[in-house]
């Protein structure tokens, strides 16, 4: 009898082991680290992940890519405010760092990721050969940094904010969280941060169980910028049919997508790292545009603060879109990637690797970092030009040794009366040893419910998750401060004789704000400050204009008009597409001293 009982116990044990091998159960939630450039679609992805069941998915850290669509200071504060709204101040946030890369390729600790690896030297100053493809003003970094002016008026204010010398760096957060054990990484910006981590910490690669990437275009055909039958003979197709989506740069590079183009060499390091990669390229995101039916359904489905913030941001993006083709030009890029990643993690042990939101296919791809012919030295490639030993010990005559695109109008890239020939940042399908086997999302799956107005499966999931009552935002700005009211302050100078009228032109450096305080504190009988002109081409970016408004409000001078100057210095905007341009910056005078001397001379 004992022998028979032992037999059944052993049989049950073996059967259990077999079942576990077929359908293993995760005893702990999937740990996730998100690397983001905090574009509008990025925080859609972030909020989607924050709403998921924490027993299944645990977002543990966010690192900010400061090399693309946002500036680090604005981006990190928006992330802190979103996390505070969602009650997730426990999530680590990393941004920047003051480390550099020496001439011999040695990486110092805490490289900040402000520059692509090809431009990174031993400081945080450098060129912008790739970043200049991103608009700086309207429709670009100004709108993204401020989230179209919505951020400060909607998000609540918590205790966490950027603070010099106290802010954890990107590399500190990456090392800390990846050292703690197996983790999945989702990259929805340029790859600079993560490439630096991999190159500096190869011993920690074993803890990264999967990388999910939004970026690139493999077999994609850009559906925007096309001429229709009703366009007429005057219509000139723009990026129609291109692999990439660089709408500011398709005449020189029709192959690249913004996230990969932000740092092609970094993307190459990530995809060729040997870590399993799932890529969500334009091939898939081009099949999930924000159509009018989704927009209207979303408008009627705002039951949480996070849903309201996302919709208001999306509406502002639509209302300020540069043409009337928003519903066919704005896609679910990063937010769709978060859905694909989550579904993939749920089915990680499914041999068929089914994904509920996207059709998937394995492809052999690489990232183009330089253009053929290889082995030429034309002053475009700092990895090789003027070096006896290439930087990072790269192979002479190898795939990284060709011409590297130097800017929007690089003559090497321009083909007369044709498409550009540069392929920097192209996620190219290849055969042979140069390719890496990557799981690629090729198309967004349709909604199984054919009676629904939402024609994509992820549309339904996105709205359901965002409006779910669990793990919802606690409050927004107005409910956090119910007694807050907007007041317009204008001083009454009465019969005072006003002094000399002055217009103050500032670039919003720290010294400028001290100078502005000085001018505001002077008696109005001496100096009558009539207006402020803000120049965003110096020490601060355009979105910092909000600080000027706040300072004037604090001083009771809401009556002083503030004008925003040109986002480019003279002759730096692109002659063809004026929203983009070069990024050279001049050093400035000591502003406070200059203001004091100028005031004394005036008086």
UniProtKB/TrEMBL annotation:
InterPro entries: Inosine/uridine_hydrolase_dom, Ribo_hydro-like. Keywords: Signal. Residues 1-20 form the signal peptide. GO terms for molecular function: hydrolase activity, hydrolyzing N-glycosyl compounds. Residues 32-372 form the Inosine/uridine-preferring nucleoside hydrolase domain. It comes from the Eukaryota. Coiled coil: none annotated. Belongs to the IUNH family. PANTHER family: INOSINE-URIDINE PREFERRING NUCLEOSIDE HYDROLASE FAMILY PROTEIN, NUCLEOSIDE HYDROLASE 3-RELATED. This is Inosine/uridine-preferring nucleoside hydrolase domain-containing protein. It comes from Manihot esculenta (Cassava).
């Amino acid at each position: 009898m004992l022998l028979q009982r032992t037999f059944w116990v052993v049989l049950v044990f073996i059967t259990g082991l077999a079942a576990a091998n077929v359908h293993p159960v995760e005893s702990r939630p999937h740990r996730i680290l998100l690397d983001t450039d905090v574009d509008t679609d990025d925080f859609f992805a972030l909020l989607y992940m924050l709403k998921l069941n924490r027993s299944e998915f645990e977002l543990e850290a966010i690192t900010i890519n400061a090399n693309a669509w946002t500036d680090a200071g604005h981006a990190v504060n928006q992330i802190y405010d979103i996390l505070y709204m969602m009650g997730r101040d426990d999530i680590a946030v990393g941004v920047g760092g003051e480390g550099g890369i020496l001439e011999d390729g040695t990486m110092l600790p805490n490289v900040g990721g402000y520059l692509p690896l090809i431009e990174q030297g031993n400081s945080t100053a450098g060129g912008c050969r790739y970043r200049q493809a991103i608009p700086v003003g309207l429709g670009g970094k100004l709108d993204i940094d401020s989230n179209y002016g919505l951020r400060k008026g909607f998000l609540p204010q918590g205790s966490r904010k950027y603070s010099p010398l106290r802010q954890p760096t990107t590399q500190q957060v990456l090392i800390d969280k990846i050292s703690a054990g197996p983790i999945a990484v989702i990259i929805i910006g340029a790859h600079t941060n993560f490439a630096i981590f991999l190159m500096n910490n190869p011993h920690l690669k074993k803890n990264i169980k999967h990388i999910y990437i939004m970026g690139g275009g493999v077999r994609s055909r850009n559906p925007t910028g096309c001429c229709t039958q009703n366009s007429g003979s005057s219509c000139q197709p723009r990026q129609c049919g291109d692999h990439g989506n660089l709408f500011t740069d398709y005449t020189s590079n029709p192959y690249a997508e913004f996230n990969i183009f932000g740092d092609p060499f970094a993307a190459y390091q990530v995809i060729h790292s040997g870590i399993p990669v799932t890529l969500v390229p334009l091939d898939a995101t081009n099949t999930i545009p924000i159509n009018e039916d989704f927009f209207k359904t979303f408008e009627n489905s705002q039951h949480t603060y996070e849903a309201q913030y996302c919709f208001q941001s999306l509406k502002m993006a639509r209302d300020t879109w540069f043409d009337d083709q928003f519903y066919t030009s704005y896609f679910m890029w990063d937010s769709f990637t978060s859905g694909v990643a989550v579904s993939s993690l749920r089915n990680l042990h499914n041999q068929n690797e089914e994904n509920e939101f996207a059709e998937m296919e394995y492809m052999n791809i690489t990232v183009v970092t330089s253009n053929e012919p290889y082995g030429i030295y034309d002053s475009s490639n700092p990895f090789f030009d003027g070096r006896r030993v290439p930087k990072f010990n790269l192979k002479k005559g190898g795939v990284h040794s060709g011409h590297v695109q130097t800017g929007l109008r690089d003559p090497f890239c321009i083909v007369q009366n044709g498409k550009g020939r540069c392929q920097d940042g192209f996620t190219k399908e290849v055969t042979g040893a140069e390719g890496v086997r990557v799981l690629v999302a090729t198309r967004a799956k349709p909604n199984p419910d054919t009676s629904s107005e939402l024609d994509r499966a992820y549309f339904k999931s996105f709205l359901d998750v965002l409006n779910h009552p669990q793990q919802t935002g606690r409050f927004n700005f107005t409910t956090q401060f119910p007694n807050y009211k907007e007041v317009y302050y204008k001083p009454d100078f009465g019969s005072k004789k006003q002094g000399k009228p002055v217009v103050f032109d500032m670039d919003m450096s720290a010294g400028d704000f001290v100078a502005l305080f000085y001018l505001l504190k002077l008696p109005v009988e001496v100096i009558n400050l009539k207006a402020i002109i803000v120049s965003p081409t110096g020490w601060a970016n355009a979105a910092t204009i909000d600080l000027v408004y706040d300072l004037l409000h604090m001083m009771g001078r809401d009556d002083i008009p503030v004008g925003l100057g040109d986002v480019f210095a003279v002759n730096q905007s692109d002659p063809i597409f004026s929203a983009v341009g070069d990024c050279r910056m001049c050093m400035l005078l000591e502003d406070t001293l200059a203001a004091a001397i100028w005031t004394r001379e005036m008086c």
